[in-house]
Amino acid sequence: MSKNNTILSGIQPTGKLHFGRYFGAVENWKRLQEDYDCLYMVVNYHAMTMPFTGKKLAEESWNLCFNLMACGIKPENIFIQSLVPEHTELNWILNCFTSYGQLTRMTQFKDKSSRNEELGDQGFISGGLFTYPVLQAADILIYKAGIVPVGKDQEQHLELSRNIAQRFNNFAGKEFFPIPEGLYTKVKKVMSTADPNRKMSASLGDKHNIDVFADEKRIRKQIGSAVTDSGTGADAGAMSVGVANLFSLLEASGRADAHASLLLDYEAGSLKYADLKHEVANGLVAISSEIRENLEELKKDRKAVKNQIKQSSFEIRKRAQATLKEVKDICGLMNVRM
Ligand code: TRP
């Protein structure tokens, strides 16, 4: 563990913050702050690759900053991508170090370009959606970040970033960019409580995710109606996916004692699902109420919070400017005097 190693990650300002994203990403980000130099970015440029409106994009970008702070991410580690426009300039340069063939193999592009049609944008698929992984490489490399905490779904994008860094380093004739490593969270995938065969997700609809900012009543109701048995008989003898998901939520919410004792009940065949659900709800409610209180506090002076994020973006921008200048020198591109 070292403060010398820079961590960078990005989160899209679309959709709400549910427990899947909280346990899968944000909570980990919070922990990493203790040991590393961390940069966490609200990726508003990336959010333009799917159907969007200007008003909503602005609103959701700010909301996400507030939400991240409420979850315990330090304001000095948070920034908004468009407040560091150097990302887009490096994006252009890195385009020229990206293999077209490799870009055509990105599976997320294939998934999302088919969903665009569903989302009602008349089948419009932008070039931005196609080249988005190069912007992601620029996001990482502009800070010479060595560690990138992301979900498994980002593995292919990260591999592309590594290849771009290598190709640039060969061109530069030196180890200019560190080759970034992915840090994949150990937390088990959080599944939807309404359909534990699917990942908890905002796009599946309200019953398929539990909002971190939901009130106690809502959380208890959602956990109360969680599916425990699939009813297909497929799980005979083994723990059903629904029950396993409740156990992992209990573990993720830090209730180690309750987790251990309920697991003993399960093994003895005496577990009551109602008890398990009660404990899971207690765990989630405890996390949620603390975060909600933090958010209320932050909302009292919205302007001050926004200024804090603008300030941190301003400070972080200086680091991006320094790398971009070096890259332009290496490429023989004239620099604007700073
Ligand atoms: N593409 C990532 C996602 O959809 C978000 C992202 C953008 C990102 N830039 C990044 C993640 C840089 C890690 C590093 O979740």
Comma- or semicolon-separated keywords:
2 domains, 338 residues, two-stranded parallel sheet, mainly alpha, Rossmann fold, three-stranded parallel beta sheet, Tyrosyl-Transfer RNA Synthetase, globular
Compose a concise summary of this entry.
The protein has 338 residues and is mainly α. Helix content is 55%, strand content 7%. Strand 4, helix 8 (155-172) and strand 5 (181-184) form a beta-alpha-beta unit.
What does this structure look like?
- By secondary structure, the chain is mainly alpha-helical.
- The protein has 2 domains: 6-190 and 302-331, HUPs (Rossmann fold, 3-Layer(aba) Sandwich); 202-297, Tyrosyl-Transfer RNA Synthetase, CATH 1.10.240.10.
- It is built from 13 helices and 5 strands.
- The chain has helices at 19-32, 44-47, 54-70, 86-95, 100-103, 107-118, 127-141, 155-172, 216-224, 241-252, 256-268, 273-299, 302-331; strands at residues 6-11, 37-42, 78-80, 147-150, 181-184.
- Strands 1-2-3 form a 3-stranded parallel beta sheet. Strands 4-5 form a two-stranded parallel sheet.
- Strand 1, helix 1 and strand 2 form a beta-alpha-beta unit.
- The model has no long low-confidence stretch (mean pLDDT 92).
- Tryptophan binds at residues 8-10, 12, 43, 46, 136, 139-140, 148, 150, 154.
